[in-house]
Amino acid sequence: MSLLYDYLDGELEGVSLERVKAHFEACRMCYPHLRFEEAFRAAIQRAGRGEKAPADLKAHLLELLESTSAES
Amino acid sequence: MPGNADVDADRKASFQREALPHMDAVYRFALRLSASPDQAQDLVQDTFLRAYRSWDQYTPGTQCKSWLFTICRNLYLRQRERGQRHDEIVTANAPVGQASEGGVNPLWSAVEGSDPEGEFFGSIVDAEVLTAIDALPEEYRTAVVLSDVEGMSYDEIAAMLDVPVGTVKSRLFRGRRRLQKVLYDYAVEMGYLAAATSEGGVRDPHG
Ligand SMILES: [Zn+2]
Question: How many helices (H) and strands (E) does chain A have?
Fold first, then answer.
């Protein structure tokens, strides 16, 4: 399970990445399990990235920055 | 000081170029932290003002988003210490590498017969997913948002939260499991998915 998340989270490299990938994609148990976790992540990502900062907040912040000077 | 106006102009330009494009991401992060649009807007404003004032401390070319998130989270934690959301204190530095973290996801075993690839996740509306994320304890929520929404690496998250990588993995593991359970229960309730008749069948995939 931990290996599955390491793989999905892009934390594996080199030989271990190749070996794990080859196994997950060929294994009858691991493959759907992988797809399951991917479907979960896709839902989280879609929901989490859906919101944008309100336009008036952006405008207000730009105004504030214009009148603020950095400390040195 | 001679040339001060130029320095200010350069600083402003580099801040606008490197920091401001992350405003949507900081806003989303602030929303997940505070679960309140009003508080999130205040947090974003305070984050960028503080970031601008301390822009000289930012190392160009490093992860600007992580740097802004760190400021945002510190501001949030300070506010929370003043009395907000005390309901969600979770044991810090939970033990890692427990036996329960190996093996097959029990939830996946429950859907193995009906929806093994988790298509039900895609049927759940965004608002419901966000509600479920917001209901997680803060430590799990932050880890899940930084990894699953923002795509940050374990190392980046560990550095940002000032905890070991093993703690990040443990929080991600627990946060994801909790979230999956909540979304699964919701999908069953909504009829997107038939409830599993037996949940006892945790098996080793290679046994
Ligand atoms: Zn396998």
Answer: 4, 0
